[in-house]
Design brief:
By secondary structure, the chain is of the alpha/beta class. It has a single domain, classed as Rossmann fold. The protein is 24% helix and 22% strand. The chain is built from 6 helices and 8 strands; from the N terminus they run βαβαβββαβαβαβα. It has helices at residues 29-37, 58-61, 131-137, 153-163, 180-193, 200-204; strands at residues 4-9, 43-48, 69-72, 75-78, 104-108, 142-148, 167-176, 196-198. The strands form 2 sheets. It has a 6-stranded parallel β-sheet. Strands 3-4 form a two-stranded antiparallel sheet. Helix 4 packs parallel to helix 5 (180-193). It is globular, with a radius of gyration of 16 Å. It starts with a strand and ends with a helix. Keywords: Hydrolase, Metal-binding, Pyridine nucleotide biosynthesis. InterPro entries: Isochorismatase-like_dom (IPR000868), Isochorismatase-like_sf (IPR036380), Isochorismatase_Nicotinamidase (IPR052347). Belongs to the isochorismatase family. Residues 5-201 form the Isochorismatase-like domain.
């Protein structure tokens, strides 16, 4: 069984240009990811999959997105515009992804009262998504992360992946972020946790 896998995080319409929570230049990761896909026999994708009225939506609380927060049972919850609502066009994976041999699409954030940035744990840092077990059953030890966004779902997936015992590498030119300051802070957290980084060109030519 292959020890390496590519984890493609939240490359969905709502996070791309024109989407309700667009990551700046988010679509630029897609051709890079498609090239990387040819190198990996094992690929999994994640898909944000929120119900209407989700706890992370500012509209749910009558508050302002990006500015205000709410206190959830698991701590402070950032508030966002409505995004990736189940069965909506915005929740769809980008049709430009060319990963026909991907073996898994993991949906996360589908519980109304808890958000899920990480591909491995929901925001209570207790509820597992099951992805770690999926990779372990496949004999995967080395995970290469790409997608959206650097400072949130990719970032927390990298940290939690390390906690689950995987060797984690973020492919930096296959990731885009929301805010430069929070990207810098997340990068420092990666370094402290032992997360590695690499460019796609280096990886493709190994």
């Amino acid at each position: 069984m292959s020890q390496d896998a590519l984890l493609v995080i939240d490359v969905q319409r709502d996070f791309l240009t024109g989407g309700s929570l667009a990551v700046p230049q988010g679509e630029e990761v897609i051709p890079v990811i498609n090239r990387l896909g040819k190198k990996f026999a094992e690929i999994a994708l994640t898909q944000d999959w929120h119900p209407a009225g989700h706890i992370s939506f500012a509209s749910t609380h009558g508050k302002q997105a990006f500015v205000e927060t709410v206190e959830a049972a698991y701590g402070t919850q950032a508030l966002w515009p409505d995004h990736t609502i189940q069965e909506s066009a915005g929740a769809e994976l980008s049709p430009d992804l060319e990963l026909p041999h991907a073996g898994m699409v993991l949906r996360k954030g589908f519980r109304r009262d808890i958000d899920s940035y990480s591909a491995f744990l929901e925001n209570d840092h207790t509820t597992s998504t099951g992805l770690a077990g999926y990779f372990r059953d496949k004999g995967v030890t080395n995970l290469y992360l790409c997608g959206l966004a650097w400072d949130y779902c990719v970032g927390f997936s990298a940290l939690d992946g390390k906690q689950f015992g995987f060797n984690i590498t973020v492919i930096t030119d296959a990731v885009r972020g929301i805010d430069p300051q929070s990207m810098t802070e997340m990068t420092k957290r990666w370094q402290a946790a032992g997360v590695s980084t690499v460019t796609s060109e280096t990886l493709l030519h190994r």
